[in-house]
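Hi U.,

Before I forget, here's the chain from the pilot set. I'm dumping it here mostly so it's searchable later in email.
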Amino acid sequence: MPRIYRAMSEQGGKPMVGPSARSLGVRVPPLPTYDIPMEANGTVRPGTGGMSVAPTWRELPPHRIPMRLRALAQDACGNDADACWRMGEGPFEHAQVTPALNLRPDSPRHGLVEPAVVVSVAEYQADLAATRDQWVVDER
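Structure:
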């Protein structure tokens, strides 16, 4: 399983689950800004988008890195209510994250956690939420 990082809000010592850029989940249409397109029948497919992640927390966009980490990441300007979360231990390359989810890097500094097969939006969101207990705060 690849090592991935994402800045997310915390709830009960774990990442908050939800359809936002600051939670464990994805935004879908009809929101004007979405992470993965949804087909007319309510499904999503691999290779079209997903939940954004990075290979290290320092490679997250500056607006996602909590401002309190400026001593470690000079441009950090994100919400201090968020934390930098890590999951996995392997290299940041195309690989299975769980049986239902894959990592597809689209650059050396960014990747997408996508559905492994065509599934309903609800199933994809549930698959992402099912990883909640595997995430740990890592701001070293």
